[in-house]
Amino acid sequence: MDxxxxxxxxxxxxxxxxEYAYFRLRNAIMVGALKPGTALxxxxxxxxxxxxxTPIREALRRLSSENAIEVxxxxxxxxxxxxxxxxxxxxxLRTTLEVHAATRAFPYISDMAIEGLAALDAQMDDALxxxxxxxxxxxxQLFHKTxxxxxxxxxxxxxxxxxWLQLGPFQRQVIEHIDPVATEDHHKxxxxxxxxxxxxxxxxxxxxxxxxxxxxxxRQMLQMPAQPGP
Length: 230
Hints:
The protein is mostly helical. Helices cover 63% and strands 3% of the residues.
């Protein structure tokens, strides 16, 4: 079986090899390019990224500490599988953290910031039309981070990214089982609330975005019995 594709990321001139390995693997997990239960090896990842095992080992150590990689016996590694209890915990955490972050960012909303968010929403529409799920997930996360980062004293984004990192692999599986075109576009609701300076409407749109059809489908998928192997 061919190894899973690891989406490329920009590599700045000052980015070390260890940083590059970490951020590329982290991005692959966060956008769901690596599915839950995917087995990983130091050597396999090193070969795929054309790097020595040392930066891969350090990257996986960091990702393990963030609960994005599971270390098993005999030096085996895998992307953690999802279970119903963990899924519900992550969904509730995401809702609480993102509503908090939006509320704290709200006093810093400006027309210029809204224009920037609207441009990202247009990019999401384009990625959706092309069925580019990697780009759709990446731009969606950038939309939310851009909003929350309007608060100059924000401290929630690292916590939110930790939740995204744990949800990403399973959430991508869910998206592949539904038609994103048929789901409601809650980002346009967020933009409308921002333009009207309506904080309750903004929080309601964010909560609706978290609890959209993909959450219902995710719950259904987790309740399905595991299929026996060949």
